[in-house]
Design brief:
mainly alpha, ABC transporter involved in vitamin B12 uptake, BtuC, two-stranded antiparallel ribbon, 11 helices, 74% helix, globular
Length: 300
């Protein structure tokens, strides 16, 4: 039972990270019906930004808490700005074109960012310092959950609550829901859909940046390729829960995290990445709309 609890909590922490990335996928798809395959690379850029900024701040002799806060803020700002730029330059001109055009553009942006970071940094794994503090009150239960996992869970929970409140109770959240429901009608009632879509990309990119810093602190390393793997898994989680559904993205992320953790613990760690694709195949066969997805009928 102790072993199961360890695996379950580890999978919960992993699912929390997937949720931060999957939310970006599902928000963008819910509003513009676009799969932003460059979203994983934004996550990767967030991690590298925190590594570079944190390194300079450490050299200046700043305290660890200041390095943590400023590194995360820098990561959020840079990734959000990058997400906005991608939407403005690569996706907006193709918004009224065939969907395949935007999809190819997204894949192209992903490959460009991967190769840019590989050439600008290195193709090898780099050591990533643990910016997160050690929580002494967790020492009695450290064999079940460590400080990093606990901080990841709390951070993700706070972000989920904030995002839910933003979408349900704020003006921009109502505009997002209106745009997702009917862009034409939203424009008729005065909603600036270009602004709404840009804000959606900014929020999704900021969430991915937080996920990048947290998971790199947890793993202790970073590489130019981590965004591709994490992005694919987060996409699987979004599809599993129901692409376009925010609760579905969260649920799918936790299911994927638990499946990977329990699978590697009881079967083999060699198949960790394979579990995500097995789940994707099964959900596409058994329930293509996802667990919480809605069957959208289209007129012919």
């Amino acid at each position: 039972m102790d072993y199961f609890l360890k695996l379950f909590l580890s999978g919960t922490a992993k699912g929390s990270i997937y949720a931060l990335i999957a939310l970006g996928y599902t928000m963008v798809y819910g509003i513009v019906q676009l799969i932003n395959f460059a979203h994983g690379e934004v996550y990767m850029l967030g991690g590298f930004t925190a590594l570079i900024v944190g390194g300079y701040l450490f050299m200046l002799g700043m305290p660890v808490w200041a390095v943590l806060v400023l590194s995360i803020l820098a990561s959020i700002v840079f990734s959000a700005a990058f997400g906005f730029t991608i939407e403005r330059l690569a996706y907006r001109p193709l918004r009224n074109k065939p969907r395949l055009s935007a999809l190819i553009s997204a894949i192209g942006i992903s490959m460009i960012l991967q190769n840019f970071v590989m050439l600008a940094q290195t193709e090898k794994y780099l050591s990533f310092p643990s910016y997160l503090p050690e929580l002494t009150f967790l020492l009695p239960v450290r064999e079940y959950i460590n400080s990093t996992q606990f901080i990841i869970l709390v951070t993700t929970s706070v972000i989920m609550v904030f995002l839910t409140a933003l979408i349900k109770f704020t003006r921009i959240g109502k505009a997002m829901r209106a745009t997702a429901q009917d862009k034409g009608m939203a424009q008729l009632v005065g909603v600036n859909i270009n602004q709404v879509i840009s804000v959606t990309f900014i929020i999704g990119s900021a969430l991915a940046a937080v996920g990048g810093v947290l998971i790199c602190s947890y793993m202790g390393q970073i590489n130019y390729y981590i965004g591709f793997v994490a992005g694919i898994k987060a996409f699987v989680a979004a599809v599993l829960g129901g692409i376009g559904s925010i609760p579905g993205a969260v649920l799918g992320s936790f299911i994927l995290g638990w499946t990977e953790s329990l699978g590697t613990g009881y079967i083999s760690s060699d198949y960790e990445d394979a579990f995500a694709f097995i789940i994707l195949i099964l959900i596409l066969i058994l329930k293509p709309d996802g667990i919480l997805g809605k069957n959208q009928k289209q007129k012919v």
